[in-house]
Amino acid sequence: MNMETVETENTTVQSDADQVEILGLEEFRKKEPGICSIRHIDKVISKPEFCKASNFRGLVYGTFVIPSKKNLQISHNIFAFCLTPDKLYFIDEGSKVRKKVRAMEEEYDNEIRTPLVFLLDFMEYLIREDLYVLQGYEKTLSQLAERMNAGTVADTGKDFMYMRSQLNALYTYYEQLSNMAQTMEQVVVQSGDETAQTLLSLYIQRVQHLAQMTHTLKESLTQVLDMKQAKLSERQNDLVNLLTIVTSIFTPLTLITGWFGMNFVNMHLLKEPWGYTSVIVFCVILTLAEILVIRNWKIFRKQ
Questions:
Q1: Mean pLDDT across the stretch 62-89?
Q2: Nearest to 2 by CA among 98, 109, 75
């Protein structure tokens, strides 16, 4: 790329070819008052909300809201851009874009051809490691499924909900990038730059692949959650069956103890010396008979 960066007090960074420049918002407004006088352009670049790109009279402008792969819900890299026919501006109040441009310069060993090609290279650079992030989610889901089948998963409800929110954020991010690429496709075709057309085509394929992979992971997570719910339901059914068996065994005994606990004067066996023993023997025989019936008839047994 061979792009020298020049740092000044106003945080401006330029290339040798004067094709790429990084400015703060107020600096950009001072340098390009004509562009910023267009209300909807100034509104978009001053308040980035999500990844988007727009085309207006030869100008391509938009914003990037890039989720941090470590915490997709909190940390974001937020900045705007404006592409003119002869220059690419990044509007960033911090130094995140500058760091990414320098890292891209160190990794890529090609010279800047046009601002449009640089922007497409930069967009591709932003998602270059996302595939490995998604593979990490896939590995985690596989491990959870294996542990769940082995019955060694504890209370992981919070982990599942966190992973679901992460995947939802990633899927939304890739959908936004896909929409950006579709907006830029018209500009690239009109430019007639074959290199830009090739880069954009590859970028669209990669973003669509990442979005599809994220969607597949979301479905896999849903299956794992269903599996977990099935395991919990199975455990609950086992407990219910156990309680039902115990209740079935002790209900007749409860009836007998309640019956003889009335202590009416004319009740048989109350004054017989063998009455108490006979009732105990009868209860033991009745309990054994109930256990045999439950076992032989396979009552409450899993199918």
A1: 81
A2: 109
